[in-house]
Amino acid sequence: MKVKELIDHLDCRLHAEGRPDEDVYRGVAGDLLSHVMGAAPEGSCWVTIQTHVNVAAVAVLKEMPLVILASDREPAPDLVERCLKEGICLVSTPLSIFEVCSRLGNLGIEG
């Protein structure tokens, strides 16, 4: 599924457009950066409540086209700036991490 299609289903607010036509087939949820670095498949979307610039560093490392900030979290300005620079789509949603993952699963995104 395309990034732009996913964010349409998640009641998202866009902070950085990234590459909206990039495909996403897998996802990961978590807030411990080292866990996400080890567990996330390349090209997956990431659901988190972390809002600092290191989120972008992990997304770049794992070639993640989409970062979803759950629970209405607001990204730090330097995170937005880095996502814009790196072509990472950054969105926030009022949905909880659990709700986001449930919707992603219903859309066919595997964990």
From TrEMBL:
User: In its keyword annotation, does this UniProt entry include Kinase?
Assistant: yes
Keyword line: Kinase, Transferase
The organism of origin for this protein: Thermanaerovibrio acidaminovorans (strain ATCC 49978 / DSM 6589 / Su883)
Lineage top rank: taxon = Bacteria
Descriptive protein name: HPr kinase
MF terms per GO, please? kinase activity
